[in-house]
Design a protein that fits this description.
This protein is an alpha/beta fold. It has helices at about 10-20, 30-50, 85-95, 140-150, 170-180, 210-215, and strands at about 1-5, 55-60, 65-70, 75-80, 100-110, 115-120, 130-135, 135-140, 160-170, 185-190, 195, 200. Helix 1 (about 10-20) runs antiparallel to helix 2 (about 30-50) and helix 2 (about 30-50) crosses helix 3 (about 85-95). The protein is globular and about 65 Å long.
């Protein structure tokens, strides 16, 4: 598995990462969603460099230009609900992409422990296609693994790009240990060292889904 970390390179991405982490800026859900959207666009640009292009002739008013064009748009997959804003940013760039939506959530026990429950998936055929699976936070890594494995029920992709804005080191280690596939690339914005007993990344940013769409009642 190839791992790429885009943060801490003194680019505009770092400004957006700083804003989504900032507790004073997080009070504006519109701005929080917009930053997830813009981060999605920039991840899409970087991922596009890994896709297949072929040089084609494009007729201009003054002649013929030889221009690289994408051979095939990727399929954009996301884990609901936190991934929606970032997904829309990716879709802005890959504007003809097919889309896949995966419903998975934390199901808590009376002891406060949880397992990731997979509920539903809406997807086109993924056979021999490039898939970009996004979720803003990679905490324990279990949601991303479940989402990844769910993809194969719709056909085996040629390559899967896993995308998270902020990850715990534990989450990275879990994905590396549990997804043994050379046709997978893990894209991250930043890797934080800590994680709470409830599997929230520290310093992280809190609950991305709640910050973007409002607080929810967790399933018990």
């Amino acid at each position: 598995m190839n791992i790429k970390v885009l943060g801490n390179n003194q680019s505009i991405l770092d400004q957006y990462f700083a804003e989504i982490r900032d507790i004073s800026i997080q009070t504006d859900p519109l701005r929080f969603r917009e930053n997830l959207y813009r981060i999605g666009e920039l991840f899409a640009y970087e991922i596009s460099k890994e896709l297949n292009f072929e040089v084609t002739d494009v007729k201009t008013p003054l002649g013929i230009a030889k221009v690289p064009k994408m051979v095939q748009q990727p399929v954009l997959a996301t884990i609901l609900r936190a991934g929606l804003a970032m997904h829309n940013g990716l879709l802005k760039i890959f504007d003809r992409a097919e889309n896949c939506f995966i419903s998975a959530y934390r199901k808590y026990t009376d002891k406060g422990e949880f397992e990731i429950e997979f509920e539903y998936m809406a997807s086109p055929s993924l056979k021999d296609k490039v898939v970009i699976l996004s979720d803003p936070m990679l905490a324990s890594g279990k949601s991303m693994e479940i989402g990844y494995r769910a993809l194969f029920s719709k056909g085996k992709p040629s390559h899967v790009h896993l995308v998270a804005i902020i990850s715990s080191q534990q989450g990275v280690d879990y994905i590396v240990d549990n997804i043994k596939d050379e046709n997978v690339t893990l894209w991250l914005g930043a890797v934080d060292e800590g994680m709470t007993s409830k599997s929230y990344i520290t310093p992280g940013l809190g609950d991305a889904g709640d910050l973007a769409y409002g607080e929810k009642i967790d399933s018990k």
